[in-house]
Amino acid sequence: MAADMTAETVSRPTFRKGFETLEAEVSLDALPVEGMIPEWLTGTLLRNGPAKFEVGERRLEHWFDGLAMLHKFSFGGGTVSYANRFLRSRAFEAAERRGAISYSEFATDPCRSIFRRAATLFRPKLTDNCNVNLTRLGDEYVAMTETPMPVAFDPETLETLGVSFRPPGMHATAHPHHDPERNELIAYVTHFGPRSEYRLFAQSDRSRQRRIASRRVAEPSYMHSFALTERFIVLVAFPLVVNPLELALSGKPFIANYRWKPERGTGVLVFDRADGSLRGVHEAEPCFSFHHVNAFERGGELVLDMAAYEDATVIDSLYLDQVRSTRGATAPTARLWRYRIDLERGGVDEEALSEAPLELPRIDYRERNGRPYRYVYGTGAASVEEGGEFLDRLVKIDVTTGAAAEWREAGSFPGEPVFVPSPRPDRAEDEGVLLSVVLDARDTSYLLVLDAGSLEELGRARVPHHIPFGFHGQYFS
Ligand SMILES: [Fe+2]
After folding, report:
1. Ligand 1 centre and the CA of 288: distance in Å?
2. What percent of the chain has pLDDT over 90?
3. How far is the CA of 188 from the centre of ligand 1 (A)?
4. In a 3-state reduction of DSSP, which class is residue 103?
5. pLDDT band of 135, cuts 50, 70, 90
6. 173 C-alpha to center of ligand 1: Å?
7. For strand 359-362 and strand 375-380, is the pairing parallel, antiparallel, or unpaired?
8. CA 391–ligand 1 middle distance (angstroms)
9. 322: pLDDT confidence band, cut at 50, 70 and 90?
């Protein structure tokens, strides 16, 4: 019996801790550091992700539903400070006050009577639980999810400052692009209604919004991110689609209304940034992706790189009951796919650039977004057949050769690697560091600093608690 218990303890997948609630909020001047943090690293890494998975007696259903927490790592003189705070969104405050889920999340709805449901038709009480990503907009820092309610916060204290700008629709992206020339964010939003539309817009501060383009769509696609090149905005409409009327009437949580219709193929919509005109709609094989990696123009070609799946079952695999109940990974694995689109004749050529798994991809965004590039960094997991667990490695792929390198450590589960360029003039594309929050077998997390060129560890700074698996972060110098 004792031997069996030991075996059970040993074989327990440690990644499950990453889906457990963290209640503690701390502020620490210096984390214990092993190794060396580069002296030139003097900025702040802000990260976002879910950290609370129960409200009162109820459990949230999906990884994407957890209540948002901000984490802040500041660097200077080889030291690392750390602080974390829940985002005091209206959804969080209501959960605390009432002990009940009060807003509609991605895959969890509040309990509602049929009368309440009828009253909220087409006016759902959308959540402002911004747990996906964050960015700077003018002088403001905002946390974002896929509802049109980004929430501003103080980057020093992590104090919540309330809803910021309002995207002109209902299903927004948490992955806006930044246009450095106009210093504005570019994003899309899906408007649902009798005449549903994709709307492209630019936002330069809380109040200044500029509409770029609109496109009618009968059954909008679930899209999480998009691509920006020097001349184009590219939406990739995967065949995971929703009937807007069903979305309004079904009484099901948001994502449960979407249907996989592979017969539709994947539509690549290319818009001209200058005048908003639709330059082409190109049809590709059915696939699904959360994350675009990069896109650029080359000759008469549009090159589009994505971390793509064969279908959208990855969403189902990330329900918390599902992900917690498995001994190892059951989530499908994304790979780096390249679409080459002939802008004149319209053909789409699709090819996997590497066999390496790739999710939560990052590039040298400031220098390379929208332009030819060589390196992408991300997380990866071995496939189910290979006995892999949850995202258990960091990967780096040379997109020009498909060659992949990885960083792994037994029992460690790293998050999205954020690339920070070295300040050296004329540096190589991969000269810099990768910053990743890693959960390990001690059931606590640490901030890992890797050399982005070699993927060798430079140092790590341990946090006194576990950090639940998060999504995205940004480094501010
Ligand atoms: Fe994302």
Report:
1. 13
2. 83
3. 14
4. coil
5. very high
6. 9
7. antiparallel
8. 15
9. confident
Query: What is the Å distance from ligand 1's center to 131 Cα?
Result: 10
Provide the residue count of the chain.
Answer: 477
What is the pLDDT averaged over residues 192-210? 96
3-state secondary structure of 306: strand
From ligand 1's centre to the CA of 291, what distance in Å? 6
Q: Ligand 1 centre from 181 Cα, in Å?
A: 24
Ligand 1 center from residue 162 Cα (angstroms): 22
Amino acid at 402: G
How far apart are the C-alpha atoms of 22 and 467, rounded to whole Å? 7
Side chain identity at residue 382, one-letter code: A
Q: What is the pLDDT of residue 158?
A: 98
Q: Which residues pair with 86 in a beta bridge?
A: 69
Distance 132 CA to ligand 1 centre (A): 6
Largest CA distance in the chain: 71
For residue 114, the surrounding DSSP H or E stretch is helix 114-119
Report the separation in Å between the CA atom of 334 and the middle of ligand 1, taken as the mean of its atom positions. 13
**Angle, CA of 129, 123 and 57, to the nearest 5°:** 45
Give the separation between CA 477 and CA 286, rounded to whole angstroms.
40
> Both ends of the chain: CA-CA distance in Å?
55
For residue 295, report the distance from its CA to the centre of ligand 1, in Å: 17
Residue 245: both structure tokens together: 């009327």
- State residue 182's pLDDT score: 95
Give the distance (Å) from ligand 1 centre to CA of residue 76: 28
Look up tokens 């930044």; give the residue.
178
What DSSP string describes 134-184?
EEEETTEEEEE-SSS--EEE-TTT--EEEE----SSSEE-S--EEETTTTE
Residue % of the chain over a pLDDT of 70: 92
